[in-house]
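Justification of resources, computational component.

The compute hours requested in this renewal are based largely on the per-chain cost of generating structure records like the one below. Each record pairs the submitted sequence with a full structure-token output. That output is archived, and it is also reused by downstream analysis tasks.
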Amino acid sequence: MKITAVVPVLNEENTVGNILKVLTSSEKINKIIVVDDGSTDNTQNIIKKIKSKKVRIISLKKTKGKGNAVKIGTKNTKSGILLFFDADLIGLEVEHVDKLLDPIIKGYAAMVIGLRDKGNYIGNAIMPYFPLTGGERAILTKVFAKIRKSPLIEGWGLESVMNDYCKKKKLKVAKVRLNGMDHIGLQTKKYGLMAFLKEIYDVALTKIKLLGVKYD
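The structure output for this chain reads:
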């Protein structure tokens, strides 16, 4: 079963190089689609320096959000499994790719959610019990083909819709700890307080809208 990794990117010049280095090193990944959502820093040049036939770059002129970028990146994919990775990760290793894929390859799950390592026992212990919106995931392409039709994946709604669909369709979801891997920090460190508050608002609003959603 072929595997495609999709990486939405927006101004991640400090981290995207290592993300792509790891993904291209994975023998299990057949194709990597990087969707640049209108970066204005050096991200584009760094991506172009990755010399691998696996990598395909899609450059968008206007920033329209992660959900739109992923929707474009997954269009017409022929792979049986999709992998999603945020581009601001620290500590990503090939073993994390394997951990995400293992439950699906063995037929134990339709979707796998990667739990980031928060660096402390309490944070890691309580994370699986909170609403999970992390971007590191593996999912069967036939399942995501249904999810990507939802208009609610726009903005910050992507992961919430993925969770909701699998729950309502009673599909098995596995959670795996990605030890030693986290992202560079909260939105407050990257884009400011207002961006962080907007993310919280968008996620909460999406969850409310999903209460009345029924899937075919």
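The longest strand covers residues 3-9. Residues 3-210 form a domain with the Spore Coat Polysaccharide Biosynthesis Protein SpsA; Chain A fold (CATH 3.90.550.10).
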